[in-house]
Amino acid sequence: MKAISELNLPEDVRYTDDHEWAKKNGDVVRMGISDYAQDQLGDIVFVELPDVGSSFDKGEEFGTVESVKAVSELYMPIGGEVTAINDALADEPERVNSDPYNGGWMLEIKASDPAELDALKSKADYLEVLKG
Amino acid sequence: MRTTIKRTPLNRWHRDQRANMANFGGYDMPLWYSSVKDEHLAVLNGAGVFDTSHMAAVTVVGSEAADLLQYCFTNDLDGCMGPSKKPLSPGRCVYGAFLDEHGQTIDDAIVFFLEADSYMVVINAGMGGVVADHLRHNLGRRNATVTDLSDRLGKMDIQGPAAARILSEVLVDPKAVLTGMPYFSFKGHFDPTSPLADAVRLDDGAPILLSRTGYTGEFGFEIFLAPDRIQALWEHLLAAGHSFDIKPCGLAARDSLRAGAVLPLSHQDIGHWPFINHPWPFALPYNADQTGFTKDFIGRAALEEQTDFSFTQVFVGKDLRKISAGEGSRVIDADGQTIGTVLTCATDMGVGCYDGIIFSVASPNKPEGFTAKGLCCGFVKVDRKLSLNEHVDIADNRRKITVTIVDDVRPHRTARKPMAGMI
Fold it and tell me: What is the pTM (predicted TM-score) of this model?
């Protein structure tokens, strides 16, 4: 397990208490799980994502991430309509472990309320959550 | 009441490696170090070491020790070895269980026949006191002394096809030790005052009890030794096994390896229900035609007059996806009826299905280009006996998957391979 000081927590993404991240990427918002989340879960062997076109509210479950030990729910950091999913995770779910913010992204959505993104936690606030 | 979590002698080592730790059986144990999958595969391809000092051991010594164990343990010490059912002899060990008078499992165990009138019983974490009390409670007038060795003994396992070659690097006279060591046999003793202690020594002089057993289904050993000697051995084996890609393995890999090898986890796959109608009939003292038992033992009457007709069976899924076993899980038959619960559901990452046949990364006949994508597997407890190859659904509150009832999961396991080919 990584110490908090060893975690890769980029400044340019926003975080949730459930350890998802979200980041504005042009017209859409890209999301995934944080380095802390992947480290806690261990080897990720399967990622179950929704269909493009489906819509979710902020906080709603949108899929599952399966490690060798357990299946965990994924929750929407903000609400919106799914415009793309990361198809590469079907064959290489381990990307979530090795590169959680780039190659391991999960969804892109069209935000229903852009203000929801601004309300998510900064790196500094997320670090406070992790330190408990 | 305040309970403090216990630590094995290797706890500091696990913590220094930043292992993902969790409470298991009252002990702070590693679940994995860096990758469960790599640890699981290391045991199939090379070797892995496991800290198992959380497990408990009890000795039973005295002129009527065998008689006490015959009465309390399910397997028949007078007829449990090999197809011809020979009596257990010194240097051999046997798997079975301790049951209560309702035929329900107190714990499963391996009984080691050390020497005349002297046995060691190895049980699960935190069960030393319970099993010792159970044996003493049933002692009657027998001449036997029961001693709980919990937390006074170090234990680690080395498992995998390279285990003997790596172990050879740390033993005095490895050829003499390992030659002629069949599955479920052992040599040596961890107590330096025992006359058996000279049979197996580490090159630093420490005496060990070396047993050709384990909990992975793969070739390997369990090693019992003094707690203050374990870290040196652990580090020595990791260094000696470097060229075999040895890995320290946590309880998560132990769980996925044992599930694929169809081995039960006590208090999960066997427990507070009758110890019968399960995939481990070899743990019961059946006669040759499997119509009755060959000896009397606690729980026998309840098993013979059972009214709880539930069956524990093995399943394998279509891919690696799992459900959460235990409370809230369901087994659903083709008619949509709920017929039981899921006891264990794990993913064996070393296997995959190809044209309807399961292969392992270690299968000599695996198809060209085969990659093990992993299969979910485990045990269901159902209220009617399912046929081999029958499909049922298993479900938790999130997902439902279709699985097949089978009698085995991971093929080409190495546990029983002749020693001659493994040194």
Answer: 0.94
